[in-house]
Amino acid sequence: MQSKPHSSDQFLDRILNGHHHRGAEPPPDADVASPRIAVSPLDLARVIERVSRRFLDYMRLELTKLGVDDISPSQVMVLLTIGQGEIAVRDLLDRGHYVGSNASYNLKQLVESGYLERGASPRDRRLARISLSPKGQMLCERLRLIDDASPCGQNLEFNAEAD
Predict the structure, then answer these.
(1) What is the distance, to the nearest Å, from the Cα of residue 152 to the centroid of all Cα atoms in its chain?
(2) Own/partner long-range contacts of 155-160 (Cβ < 8 Å, ≥24 apart)
(3) Which of 68, 74, 80, 128 could form a disulfide with 89 if both were Cys (CB 3.0 to 4.6 A apart)?
(4) Contact, 68 vs 113, CB < 8 A?
(5) CA-to-CA distance for 126 and 79, rounded, in angstroms?
(6) DSSP secondary structure string, 54-103?
(7) Residue 141 CB contacts under 8 Å (≥ 6 apart), including other chains
(8) Around Cβ 73, how many Cβ atoms within 10 Å?
(9) pLDDT in tens, 78-127
(10) Other C-beta atoms within 10 Å of 78: how many?
(11) Distance CA 67, CA 16 (A)
(12) pTM above the 0.85 mark?
């Protein structure tokens, strides 16, 4: 079931104040044809932060269902950001917007628990390169399968150009 979007101000108000629930219908007086209302950067930052926390809670739940207890949801996001192939640590920091000390700790933990393989760049031995280990690839694949089977996004239309 696909519901029509709320006007921006009502949507943000509900999200920011914690009143947005899945399956909630828009109020009868909602004008769905109204033009977009400008969203302040502060409001946008609040929504992004709230969505991020909710997603990490969701990821924690899925890891529990899989019986995985040696990795945090934030560390899973690092694995998903790395993806397939090999990446320089510097590129990971740029791509994932991680703070250096936090990323360094997470990478060390991921290597020690067997989710990542770390090596030196062949051109410059001072630069670290990382890639998913078979254990890390397996976890990412299991999470992708869960995501593919999830009913949450199956009926949503995605228009990247409009977004």
Answers:
(1) 15
(2) 155/1, 155/2, 156/2, 157/2
(3) 128
(4) no
(5) 22
(6) HHHHHHHHHHHHHT--SS-HHHHHHHHHH-SSEEEHHHHHHHHT--HHHH
(7) none
(8) 15
(9) 999 898 889 988 888 888 777 778 888 999 999 999 999 998 877 887 78
(10) 23
(11) 32
(12) no
**Rounded distance, CA 132 to CA 39, Å?**
38
Is the alpha carbon torsion for 46, 75, 55, 35 positive or negative? positive
- How far, in Å, CA of 1 to CA of 93, rounded? 38
Paired tokens of 113: 């628990």
Q: Which amino acid appears at position 90 of this protein?
A: R
d(CA 4, CA 26): 8
